[in-house]
Amino acid sequence: MMATAELVEEVPLGTSKVVKVTGITNPGQTVSILVRGSNKLVLEEAERSLHDALCVVRCLVKKRALIAGGGAPEIEVSIKLAEHARTLTGMEAYCVRAFAEALEIIPYTLAENAGLNPIATVTELRNRHAKGETTAGINVRKGTITNILEENVLQPLLVSTSAIQLASETVRSILKIDDIVSKYKIRRRAMFPEVRYDHSSRDYSVASCSSKFSIKF
Length: 217
Prior knowledge:
The structure is a single chain. This protein is of the alpha+beta class and about 220 residues long. It contains 6 helices and 9 strands. α4 packs across α5. It starts with 6 loop residues before the first strand and ends with a strand. Belongs to the TCP-1 chaperonin family. This is T-complex protein 1 subunit delta. GO terms for molecular function: ATP binding; ATP-dependent protein folding chaperone.
C-alpha cells in the first residue's frame, strides 16, 4: 500500500543533498536517523553511541526495573559475596572471593575513565557501602562519592544482570577449554618427552623411550 505525504523536497545538507518527506498520513512506528560527521571516526562514534542508547531502552522495555548506577550495585554485590565467602571453606571459598574481587573492576574502571584515583575511589566506595549506604556511587561530574539516586544516575537492571551472566558463562567456557588444552599437553608430553629443533637444518629431532626419528621440512 502506497503512502501519502504533504511535501517531498530535496534539501541541501552540507556538501550533499537529501530527500525530505514530511506530512505523512500514517507514519507508523519506523524512524530513520540521519547521522552526519566531519570524518568516518566521528560517524562511527555517533553510531556506537546511538546503538548503546537503543540497547539501554531495549533492556528497560524487556525488564522494567531501574537500579542505581555509578558502580553502586557491583560494589554492593561484591561486599555481600565477600561476606558469604567467609562462611565457606575450601575451593568454594576461593571461587566466591575471586568473583567478589572481579566485580570491583567495574567501579575501578569507571573511576579510572573519569580521571579519578581508582584505588582511593573504590576503597572509599567500599567503606560507604560497608556502613550501609547502598545507593552510594561514583559521581563523575563532582569527582567524589555521593548518593547516586539523588543525582538521577540510574541504569536498567537487565544491563547489570546480563553483564554478570555473560561474564560467568565466558569464564566457564575458558575453564573448559583450558582443561582440554591441559590434557592435550599431558598426552603430547607422554608421546614425545623430548623435542629438539635444529634451526640451521630445520630438523625436528624427537626422542622417546623406545625410538628416535627425525622429521625434515
